[in-house]
């Protein structure tokens, strides 16, 4: 089983709909992240959480919200989806020991907003 | 703000040839540096990381990268390309004490048989 699991893997939705992407991890890590990947732009950080009570905006948080329901679960919501939120979304985790910690990624959720 | 630049969005090499993927970072303080690989329809996985212990870093699948402070570079190399190396490669940096990663825009590597 994957250590970082994202659901769904693919989703098509319509403009204006609310959608939630879910991420769960079995690595026991404190830190979790949401990124979006667009062709030619690499990965950009949307939100991150260093523990259950800590939520921080990344560089492109507008139009998104998150919830850290438990250490192992971190959900990303699009309150009112728009076409330019069509992208590949990744969840990642890292532990909190030391510095320069490796981030471990899920397989991604491909979202299309029509 | 820290930035990471990957020169060349697409690189093609022949099977058995040298692979060289370029990465430069902008930071007055050498950051932690990473190379990640993304195979089709998969998430990113770590190839190697630099954390100041040694300037030449060896990773998985025969890849290595050399940190050059004077050039603010962290280029990825592999002596002999294999068909299975075809993927997208991302360079990333994190500032000391800050675990957020800044990614480059990626380089898609194609291997020519």
Quick one: how many beta strands of chain B?
12
Q: Major beta sheet of chain B, specifics? A: 6 strands, mixed
Radius of gyration computed on alpha carbons of chain B: 13 Å
Strand-residue proportion of chain A: over 45%
Greatest chain-chain interface?
A-B, 23 and 23 residues
The first-to-last residue Cα distance of chain A is 32 Å
Structural class, from helix and strand content of chain B?
mainly beta
Structure summary, number of beta strands of chain A: 11
State Rg of chain A: 13 Å
Written as H for each helix and E for each strand, in order along the chain, the element string of chain B is EEEEEEEEEEEE
Helix percent band of chain B: under 10%
Describe the structure.
The complex is a heterodimer of chains A (114) and B (113). With 114 residues, chain A is mostly beta strands. Chain A contains no helices and 11 strands. Chain A has strands at residues 4-7, 10-13, 19-25, 31-38, 42-51, 54-57, 64-70, 73-78, 87-94, 104-105, 109-113. In chain A, strands 2, 4, 5, 6, 9, 10 and 11 form a 7-stranded mixed sheet that branches. Chain A has a 4-stranded antiparallel sheet with strand order 1-3-8-7, with no helix packed on it. In chain A, strand 5 (42-51) and strand 6 form a beta hairpin. Chain B has strands at 3-5, 10-14, 19-21, 24-26, 32-38, 44-50, 56-58, 64-68, 73-78, 87-94, 102-103, 107-112. In chain B, the strands form 3 sheets. In chain B, strands 2, 5, 6, 10, 11 and 12 form a 6-stranded mixed sheet that branches. In chain B, a hairpin with a 7-residue loop joins strand 10 and strand 11 (102-103). Helix content of chain B is 0%, strand content 51%. Chain B is built from no helices and 12 strands. The model of chain B has no long low-confidence stretch (mean pLDDT 91). Chain B has 113 residues and is mainly beta. The chains are: A mainly beta (114), B mainly beta (113). At the A-B interface, strand 5 and strand 9 of A face strand 5 and strand 6 of B.
